[in-house]
User: What shape does this take?
Amino acid sequence: MLQNYEKYLTMLNEKLERFFAKQEPYIFCKKGCSKCCKNAQYPFSKIEFDYIMEGFGKADKYTQDKILKNIKEIKYAQFKTKEKPFTYKCPFLIENECKVYEYRGIICRTFGLINIDKEGGTDIPFCALEGLNYSNVYDKEKHMISSEMYKKLNILQEPLAYNVQYEFLTDEDFGKGFGFQFGEIKPLIDWFE
Ligand code: SF4
Assistant: This one.
C-alpha cells in the first residue's frame, strides 16, 4: 500500500515542482525557513501518518527521542489548554529542520502556493504578510493580490492560484487510481494516542 502511495507522491511532487517553478518570482521559500511548520494543525490521513512514521523509523535514536519528547509536550499543552482548533509546532521540526522531509505530509508539500479554496476563492499563504511568498504583489490593506503591484514588477509570469487544496488532493478517487486508500483524516498530533 505504501509503495502505491509513493507513486502518487511522485506524481504530486512533479506537479508541485512545476507550479513552484512557474511562480518562482513570487516564491521566497528557503532552507531554514520553517514558518509553515510552527503554528498549525497539519491534517494527516492514515496513509500519510503511516508514511511519516516510516520516516520516523529511519531516523537516528537522538532524533527519535527528540520527536517523542516534542509529541509528549504538545499532548500536554493540548490537554491543558483544550483550545479548539488546537495549533502547535510540528513535532518533527527540530532546530528549524524537518527531520522526516522525504516522508512529510501532503499539506507540507503545498505550503507556500496560492490555493483555490472550496468556494472558488483564493487562499494566499500567510507568509505574504511577513515579507515572504507573494509579498511583492500582496496588498496588505486590501488583503489581496494587487494587479498594480504586479504591473510595476515588469515580469511576464503573473501570480496564479492552483487547485492544491488538501481535501482535493486527498480525494479517495485519487487514491483508488493508484491502488491505496487515504483513510481517516485528523490533525497530526491526534494520531499519537
Ligand atoms: S512534517 Fe516536516 S514539513 Fe511537515 S509540518 Fe512537520 S516539520 Fe514541517
Observations:
- Strands lie at 43-45, 93-94, 97-98, 114-116, 122-123, 138-139, 144-145, 161-162, 185-187.
- The chain is about 40% helix and 10% strand.
- The pocket of iron/sulfur cluster is lined by residues 37, 42, 90, 92-93, 98, 100, 104-105, 108 (CB under 6 Å).
